[in-house]
Amino acid sequence: MKSSRSDLARKAALQTGKILLGLYQSGDRTGFLKKDQTLVTEADRAADKTIQEMILGEFPGDQILSEEGSTIFPNSQHAWIIDPLDGTVNFSRGLDYWGVSIAHLENGRPQAAALYFPVTDELFTAVQGGGAFLNGQPLKVFEDFDEDLFPIFVHCSRMHKLYRVSLPYKNRSLGAAAYHLCLIANNKAVLAFESTVRIWDFAASWLIIKEAGGTIEPFGDLQPFPAEPGTDYHKIPFPIIAAASKEVVDQARKNIIQK
What we know:
The chain is α+β, with helices and mostly antiparallel strands and 259 residues long. Helix content is 31%, strand content 30%. The protein starts with a helix and ends with a strand. The protein folds into two domains: 5-138, Fructose-1,6-Bisphosphatase, subunit A, domain 1 (Fructose-1,6-Bisphosphatase, Chain A, domain 1, 2-Layer Sandwich), CATH 3.30.540.10; 152-258, 3-Layer(aba) Sandwich (D-Maltodextrin-Binding Protein, domain 2). It has helices at residues 5-26, 42-58, 88-93, 159-162, 177-185, 199-212, 246-253, and strands spanning 31-33, 39-41, 63-66, 78-86, 99-106, 109-117, 122-127, 131-134, 137-138, 152-155, 163-165, 170-172, 191-197, 215-218, 238-243, 256-258. The model has no long low-confidence stretch (mean pLDDT 92). The radius of gyration is 17 Å and the shape is globular.
């Protein structure tokens, strides 16, 4: 019996995550630089192959955009955006914040998402209009954090090079954009800012946050969704901001100023 696309996303994230965890624990983390000077490992490629084979085995007519494959968004009603290993540098250095990110899009908009972070054993899933879940339990952001003594602000390592930032939060940078964004959905962070991510870094987390009741937006004018067929998304860095509420996002915008 054929799976639904949301079920397939979940199964592919879990299966691929377990393969990656085996490589990680065995110390098989050799990497090298691609032409764009980003890191890739053999684990990235093995994960990409696994996910693509699972998708096309169930839905051979669907098309796929992947960080490690074609980065051009296809002209297809049903398309997938995958990051087979988000947090490659962490993975290669033995740091535990990394995972698998899979999003199914219909007519260019996210409809189902699954992200699995194997070391922490956290499986985030969402379906458009059906809510978001962590390990099967519903997610709902807390918009009121006035009693939080140490609200956390997660961000990429490039932020301070590109922006002047003055915000009253504890700062953390864990090296994995998809994980940063999921921290909004499970109330571990109140604000997240990623200054130069690509669409595969946030396509799945975007839906997780939306379905958990949080706010996620492009920081600039360029809208990521609906994704445009024929566009090479490797060439388009997006600044993305996300938070527990629109109020937090609007306040943060006033205090994150491009240099």
